[in-house]
Design a protein that fits this description.
The protein has a domain at 154-204. The protein has 7 helices and 2 strands, in the order αααββαααα. The chain has helices at 6-9, 26-58, 84-94, 161-173, 178-187, 194-202, 206-230, and strands at residues 138-140, 146-148. Mean pLDDT is 78; it is low at 1-5. This is Transposase.
Length: 233
């Protein structure tokens, strides 16, 4: 049997490597994860192309695309004036939580009869600073000690958990650079410096490193399975 190298079948996929994850930084883990995901996608595409080529050589046709007959649909006549699209929109807005009712008054002549409201739901986004002054109780015990109430959980410096969650989301998933992130926060009315943003990004990121490591291991396992399926191990 003639041996075939992986590069002959998958020219864009590198050969498997032995990796040591203990000494990798967060940036290295993210870069390695992206590379493995790209290789995994290339392997899947190569497998699909090989299967299609084998099927074509064997003369096997793909499954026919059969459209549904529509027999399951209701045959009752629609009432006059009904609009399915409008009904779907209404059902979607009924699941929303209403935060504010804004009543718009109408200019009507004297003697008119009130007939209720015609509702129209509008979704909006509100980005504004929310400043909280935390006032921790201080007590003096009978023996002269001073007891102060603990700080709430989730506070990093002088910034709350929602602001830190926004910073992490913008930086890691939105690919917003550090200067742009500082400018963005200041435009919202947040008094923050670049050093403080760095602290928000670096404080207690163990969960994010664990998540990146889990994605990396899953990518390695998927790539190993794909190579085994094609006999390129």
């Amino acid at each position: 049997m003639v041996g075939i190298s992986p590069g002959a079948i998958f020219p864009d996929v590198s050969a498997p490597e032995k990796l040591s994850l203990s000494g990798l930084s967060r940036g290295d883990l993210e870069a390695l994860t992206e590379r493995l995901l790209a290789e995994n996608a290339a392997l899947k595409q190569a497998i699909a192309n090989l299967r299609a080529e084998i099927a074509a050589l064997k003369g096997v046709k793909g499954r026919p695309a059969i459209q549904p007959s529509g027999m399951e649909r209701k045959t009752e006549p629609k009432p006059e004036g009904s609009d399915n699209r409008r009904g779907k929109k209404r059902r979607k807005t009924e699941r929303l939580v209403i935060h504010e009712d804004r009543i718009i008054k109408a200019d009507v002549p004297t003697g008119s009869r009130f007939k209720g409201y015609e509702d129209f739901v509008v979704q909006d986004l509100e980005l504004r600073p929310h400043v909280v002054r935390i006032r921790r109780e201080r007590w003096q015990t009978p023996d002269g000690r001073t007891v102060t109430a603990p700080m709430p959980t989730g506070i990093t410096g002088h910034f709350g958990p929602e602001l830190r969650r926004f910073v992490l989301l913008q930086y890691h998933q939105g690919q917003v650079t550090m200067p742009q992130l500082v400018t963005q926060l200041r435009a919202f009315g947040i008094h923050i410096s670049k050093r403080q943003v760095v602290r928000l990004l670096n404080a207690g990121n163990g969960a994010f490193v664990d998540e990146a490591r889990a994605v990396l291991l899953a990518g390695l396992e998927t790539a190993k399975t794909a190579r085994a399926a094609t006999g390129t191990l």
